[in-house]
Write a structure and sequence with these properties.
This protein is of the alpha+beta class. It has 2 domains: 13-23 and 104-147, no CATH class; 33-93, no CATH class. It has helices at residues 25-28, 40-44, 55-66, 127-147, and strands at 17-22, 29-32, 46-50, 72-76, 82-86, 96-99, 105-110, 123-125. It has a 3-stranded antiparallel beta sheet with strand order 1-7-8. It has a 3-stranded antiparallel beta sheet with strand order 3-5-4. A hairpin with a 5-residue loop joins strand 4 (72-76) and strand 5. The chain is elongated, with a radius of gyration of 25 Å. The two termini are 39 Å apart.
Length: 148
């Protein structure tokens, strides 16, 4: 994984506070059908091309032919690749998720990406209290900045 570019902060982690909002996939989303999300493959059909000269391509083609349960036409391309054309109106091979109505998780913790030197536990707040805490924190920073 490529690390994000970050400017080196002028203050130590102990002087920092991190405000974050989380909507985990496991708790704030549910599986959805192609129809529910207007999946372009479901609406218009799609094309899958596999290279059956490789082990992966053989497995993919085998799955499509014998286990996918989808309607398709098959053709061999001049390049040696196999093309499968799938008709509209059937489930694609992707996974779709839609957000639930569950409220996000609002968290405030001491420190920043470098760590939490005080070892304090993160505090979970409701959205109103989180915005209020963030606003008060910003105001304290602005006041301190004006003082020099």
């Amino acid at each position: 994984m490529i690390e994000p570019f970050r400017l080196e902060p002028l203050l130590p982690p102990s002087a920092m506070k991190t405000f974050s909002v989380h909507t985990p996939l496991s708790t704030h989303f549910r599986k959805a059908s192609c129809h529910e999300v207007d999946c372009i493959h479901y609406l218009a059909g799609w094309r899958t091309v596999v290279d059956e000269s490789t082990d992966l391509g053989k497995r993919q083609a085998g799955y499509i032919r014998t286990k996918s349960g989808r309607a398709f036409t098959e053709s061999c391309q001049p390049t040696g690749l196999t093309e499968f054309l799938f008709k509209p109106g059937q489930k694609c091979f992707g996974v779709h998720n839609v957000k639930t109505d569950r409220e996000a998780i609002y968290v405030v913790k001491d420190g920043d990406w470098r760590g939490n030197p005080r070892q304090t536990d993160p505090v979970k707040l409701n959205s109103i209290d989180w915005v209020d805490s963030f606003s008060n924190h910003q105001d304290r920073l602005a006041t301190r900045f004006e003082k020099g």
